[in-house]
Amino acid sequence: MSGAMSAVGVKRARCPTCLRAQSACICRWITRVEARAALLVLQHPLEVNNAKNSARLLHLSVPGSVLSVGEAFDDAELDALLHAGGRVPVLLYPDTPGDAGLPAPPPLAPTQADRLRLVVLDATWRKSRKMLYLNPLLQRLPRLALVDVAPSNYRIRKAHAPHQLSSLEAAALALAQLEGEGAPFQPLLDAFEGFVQQQAAFVPPATPDLKSD
What we know:
Blueprint: H1 2-12, E1 38-43, H2 55-61, E2 66-69, H3 75-83, E3 88-92, E4 116-122, H4 125-134, H5 136-139, E5 143-144, H6 167-179, H7 186-200
Parallel strand pairs: 1-2, 1-4, 3-4, 3-5
């Protein structure tokens, strides 16, 4: 009995930092990068326990960043997160001209990176759109769209297009875009490659299709 109890205890042991099972701990990939812009990650609840999700690694790698879980946020709480410290929030989201039911976002005025807060929606594309619809405060934020994006290295999750990035990749590129040439975010992208390789090792190989044509 004690042996069985011990086995269960080991199986359930979790890393207190990355919150994953000890056997799947990702703490070795935490790569501290100093960002001048603040970072706020709004994570959809369905992403919290997804082993392939990169948002917690992003959060642990950017000192001072905030990760908040929810779909429809309380307006007062969200407003406090967006404007903490007097920062100007900007939503990392592509332009969606003519999107029915959404107001046109205001333009992003030229602002120094150390006065900005980058807001990242950590969700699938479909769920991120729902989060945007459910939170009017997000709709009214100026947006930042990524430019000159290379294909994603996020091969462990299905994407509808090569340029759809993980939350970590998108945030690292957006922070670099805000902060300009020489921004120190490449080491984070390099660490992400190691994270992807680790997660890929847990994915069972595809079963060959034995059916004849």
